[in-house]
Design goal:
The chain is an alpha+beta fold. It has 8 helices and 15 strands.
Length: 285
């Protein structure tokens, strides 16, 4: 079965779906994106993802290509046309197509919109969670506006590749101050021996993860204490547990950092419970 993509008003087989070579996303990485989990054929936390999308667009002064309601219809349509039961839906908006020039194009240039969806292997993801993942630390290499979810992911690509070459699944960025900021495509968390869950404040230095926000609601409900503060790789190595969060990872236990085991080197009970109960505070549509 051929996958279907939405590209600027048309649903097309993936092999025929293309954007203009003068699209500013291609030329300058001048665009933003969102990734939502799809579960049971429904999209998870659309309003939260749309709110972050609108913020990213506002920060970059890119217009919404269509109304929020219309965009939501397109997301559902792409999920349905690709028969995704469990997987993800990806959307990308760029500043549009114009002759290559750094300065913003004339106001009439329409932003480009691409939406794709694909199935993921649920069992494989669960297996990863039951084993836990390895993390490698890397120096922070990104611009300061990491709060904007831009498609300019080259630093993240390099970080993830470095991690992979060290046998790790995810990279944790460490800032010049010695504190962990976040993962190359996830937020970073630890659990102290006192059972306190710790993650960096979303005010600066990280992307405000939707999964992070949902998890904070769950923590409150479970009366698990949360501290929003930075932590070092050394504190993480000595912690009871560590995990990462992202839309398609949910709560993914971390069992080693730079080859050193966390706790007893197996996924811990707090991360396991948070993963199991995660969707209690998600919104499905
Ligand atoms: N931080 C970065 C750099 C990311 O790329 C992502 C997701 O892709 C996240 C955090 C987690 O965000 P979310 O929970 O919204 O998927």
């Amino acid at each position: 079965m051929s996958r279907i993509a939405y590209v600027n008003g048309q649903y097309r087989p993936l092999r025929d779906a293309s954007v203009n070579i003068e699209d500013r996303g291609y030329q300058f990485a001048d665009g933003v994106y969102e990734v939502c989990e799809v579960r049971g054929g429904r999209i998870v936390d659309v309003p939260r993802h749309m709110a972050r999308l609108q913020r990213s667009l506002r920060e970059l002064r890119i217009a919404m290509p269509m109304s929020l309601a219309a965009l939501t219809v397109v997301l559902h349509e792409v999920v349905a046309r690709n028969h995704v039961h469990y997987g993800l839906v990806y959307l990308q908006i760029t500043r549009g197509v114009a002759r290559r020039d750094h300065v913003f194009p004339a106001p009439g240039v329409r932003p480009s919109l691409v939406v794709t969806a694909r199935s993921l292997n649920f069992e494989k993801n669960q297996l990863s969670a039951s084993r836990g993942i390895a993390v490698a630390t890397v120096p922070e290499n990104r611009w300061p506006r990491v709060d904007i979810k831009t498609v300019a992911l080259l630093p993240n690509v390099l970080a993830r590749q470095t991690a992979r070459e060290q046998g790790a699944y995810e990279a944790w960025y460490v800032g010049a101050d010695g504190f962990v900021t976040e993962g190359s495509a996830s937020n970073a968390w630890i659990v102290t021996h006192a059972g306190v869950v710790v993650t960096r404040s979303a005010e600066r230095g990280i992307l405000a993860g939707v999964t992070r926000a949902v998890l904070i609601n769950l923590l409150a409900d479970l009366q698990i204490k949360l501290e929003e503060r930075p932590f070092t790789p050394e504190e993480a190595c000595g912690a009871a547990e560590a995990f990462v969060t992202a839309a398609t990872q949910l709560v993914m236990p971390v069992v080693t950092i730079d080859g050193k085991p966390i706790g007893d080197g197996a996924p811990g009970p707090v991360a396991r419970r948070l993963r199991e109960e995660f969707h209690r505070f998600s919104e499905f549509s």
